[in-house]
């Protein structure tokens, strides 16, 4: 597979067998069908560094035209908590200098922010029958302890590319998480306080 863009920004071409996605993230990948004639699984599982949380793997089947009916070959997946694989993927992605919307990295820093990203549990609300997560809650993602919510107008990325930032990115965006805690303590993974 060949990664060519992340979140609508072109990257240097990166060839990989594994793709890591974060909640809300998009990745543009060119998939080359160059295997022997047959049926193959395309499989996915969440990357989650915490222990003891149930999740389902997801799979799709790729069938080459003319392939005989047979049991697809299941790929070997990295462990759900394979941090070295996730690290390798993210640290090998680089911008595409000169590509559309490319901006050189500033040499002078004029804003300092401390940002945390995390996975957590959130109440289901409304008695949803589809909410079967641990402790009767659903998985969610957060940035600086604020859960993701779909934008009511433009997303930050859309506002940036359309040069329409009014009311989307405001000066009250926090420079630090509003609640200080031990951000790297694994025992906090299921702390609901």
TrEMBL record:
InterPro entries tied to this protein: Cu-oxidase_2nd (IPR001117), Cu-oxidase_fam (IPR045087), Cupredoxin (IPR008972)
Plastocyanin-like domain location:
1-67
Question: Which Pfam families did the record assign?
Answer: Cu-oxidase
**Which segments cross the bilayer?**
none
**Superkingdom as given in the UniProt entry:** Eukaryota
Q: Could you state a single Gene Ontology molecular function term?
A: oxidoreductase activity
Could you list the residue ranges forming a coiled coil in this record? Answer: none
Q: What is this protein called?
A: Plastocyanin-like domain-containing protein
